[in-house]
Amino acid sequence: MDYQRVIEQVMSATAPHIGEGAVADYIPGLAKVNPKQFGFAIATADGDCYTGGDVDVPFAIESISKAFALALVLSRKDSEVWKRVRREPSGLAFNDLIEIQLENGIPRNPYINPGAIVVADQLLSDTGDAVAALRDLLRAESGNPALEVDSVIAESELRSGDRNRAIAYLMASFGNMRNSVELALDHYFRQCSFSITCAELAKAGRLIARHGLRADGSRLLSREDARHITALMTMCGTYDGAGEFAYRVGLPVKSGVGGGLLAVVPDKYSIAAWGPGLDAKGNSVAGAVALETFARVSKSAVF
Length: 303
Ligand code: GLU
Fold this sequence. Notes:
With 303 residues, the chain is of the alpha+beta class. The protein contains 15 helices and eight strands. The chain has helices spanning 3-14, 28-31, 65-74, 81-84, 98-102, 113-127, 130-142, 151-159, 162-173, 181-192, 198-204, 206-209, 223-236, 242-248, 285-297; strands at residues 39-44, 49-53, 59-60, 148-149, 194-196, 253-255, 260-265, 269-274. Strand 7 (260-265) and strand 8 form a beta hairpin. The longest helix has 15 residues, at 113-127. The two termini are 19 Å apart. Bound molecules: glutamic acid (GLU). Residues 62-63, 94-95, 113, 157, 164, 192, 256-257, 282 line the site of glutamic acid.
């Protein structure tokens, strides 16, 4: 593939859409981000990285962290996580409460907020420090040894997190929290607040594209569990917009309300796009155009 040519095509198709959408203003720290930024990066399975635009500007990883937290939880043999979270699309918003009530405190999947809070709670029980475990993983896989939580964003999430608090307490009332709600949420909020660049995200995504192999060549996940992470990205990685994403892009994608999108073409590449303006479902508008263009021009859509 002529990577530079593909990047040029992606950048020119995306240019008219940069700045479209709205930044996530329900988290005050995200509301301040300049929406007129855009970055795109392709990290190949064999170690190269090709980039365009604002690829070195850090942004909040938000829900994309959920795929990595799940990877850590699944890396433990006999994890009880699948007793606590299901594997179905939700069809409702990522911070919906009703389904939790109707389905007895068991979230539909690990990528909506309730499921991710359960995974953070599980990772906290497994490791004693979910944020530290995730930090170590993201540092090693992104190649940035200084990657860190943005404390301003974390504080902002904590202050504006009543909906997540309600979700977690509701799950606790059904017996589906192992740690105190406030402690698990502290880890969840900080996990969402890791500051990462587009280029770093693409590199970190190789863990998934390479079926669970880490940057140092060791294996974190079984091939099967890496496939499970990818399957879930397809079914529910872009909230209740997952159907439309599968249709338009044809790749497994995980998004975050910081405007990041991570897509993988198993065995070949991990692709990151970042544009802070979101559509009504919480997915980056420019990022979606970029991934759609990438999948088309590179002929790498897998479905
Ligand atoms: N920290 C955000 C929240 O809990 C994450 C949402 C997202 O990126 O989907 O609402």
